[in-house]
Amino acid sequence: MKKGLLPLLMFFALFMLSTTMQSCNKSVLLSKKNLSFSADTVVFDTVFTTIGSTTQQFKIYNNDKRTIHIDEIELMGGTDSPFRMNIDGIQGTKVNDIDIESQDSLFAFVEVTLGVNGQNLPLIIEDSIRFRTNGVDQFVKLAVWGQDAYFHYKDLNEGTWPNDKPHVIYGYAAVDSAKTLNIQAGTDIYLHKNAILYVYKSTLNINGTLGNEVTLQGDRLESIYDDVAGQYYGIYFQEARPSTIDYAIIKNGTSGVHLYSEDPGNSGYTLTMTNSTITNCARYGAFIYSGAKVKAENCVISKNGNHALLVLEGGDFFFNFCHLLGYGNGDASTPAVGISNYYNDYANGVTNIGSINEGRIINSVIWGNLSSEIVFDTIPDDAITLNFDIRNCVIKRENPATENYYSGIQWNLDPLFTDIDINDFTFPISSPLNNEGNASFWIPTDILGISRSLSTPDLGAYELP
């Protein structure tokens, strides 16, 4: 053999040996076991058709002491699936050749957007993700309940909304000048971020019934959004004609009902609200501004970020048999009830002052976590009227008021609510709310349909059975 050929043959032999060892090492080092998962099924709460969901996630685990090689990860519905997957930052319907190191894990993210299903009732849609390792297929199931809806995007509305499917509002759903919109019992209304139900120089009638209330809430139905305030704006009345809300549940907005002025031709109430609850709004439950007029009976307004009731730059109000409560998660310095007849317009350097011709709170409870849950901040003026009447109430206030418009007030006596944490504001027979109502302002039933005593009704929205 030629001397110069020997080194070349030795190099070739070493190269082949190295390659063979690497191949052997790979088969030895890779695990023959399979994967485990943080969930075997990923379930989405109800998702409206055409609207994407929030992202769900699960983890893929390698619990072995050696690396596991995943040959394939496949979304079984392929490109026709309403689901979308992202495996450790890689998007697509199929991902190949991923290694998970010993005792390590990967994140998988899943979203879903549904097409119209043509049905009024929710429909379940399913798919799965297949993981193939070492010749074995493992599956994580995907499931979502899809719901068709009536969608409103910056549209004008009148007549009567059907209640066979939910209504979802993007931007705004408006009732234009001189028109009337009726919302039937059992209608579910979902509002997207910053969306608004806008009543402009027109009439809105929400006609819920006991056990078949009209609900307004955000359009994210995942359980993590159950108690998230500020998901949409609320119902905005601008110079509205006489409107009504009966048996409505308004929750998780920014302002439950916001009223700005009223139709100049209307001598009555801008809004009459009965048997309704407003809760967990980021700012106000009921906001009366610049001359609007509101009558409310059998209403529970609680746990809002700032005030249950705010009156600013004047306006009229009559709250009878109501719970006006604090307990909100917002600014801890704001009481449940704040009444002011002026507004400082700093941009124009003026102070606007308005009248409060009717300022009545009767047969109600004003309570919360603060030492004082009612405050007045008014400016007298010869050109305006301030007329208050607050009687037969339980009120929390650090220094009981001495103004002559208070009468029959029980100051700082705990109403003994059943369970504040779960919004159960009923009370026992030992509560100071029991039998202390003024029968002159009697109404037949409470918010739960229980008959009220003709002679000694209970205070607030509830009557002891």
Architecture overview:
- It is a single chain.
- By secondary structure, the protein is mainly beta.
- It folds into 2 domains: 36-146, Immunoglobulin-like; 149-441.
- 5% of the residues lie in helices and 45% in strands.
- The strands form 5 sheets. The chain has an 18-stranded parallel beta sheet that branches.
- The model is unreliable at 17-28 (pLDDT under 50).
- Please state the structural category: mainly beta
Shape: elongated
Helix residue percentage:
under 10%
Number of strands: 40
Unreliable segments (pLDDT under 50, ≥5 consecutive)? Answer: 17-28
C-alpha termini separation: 112 Å
Classify the beta-strand content into a percent band: 35-45%
Largest sheet: 18 strands, parallel
As for the number of domains, it is 2
Roughly what is the average pLDDT, rounded to an integer? 91
Task: Indicate the radius of gyration in whole angstroms.
Answer: 32 Å
Number of helices: 1
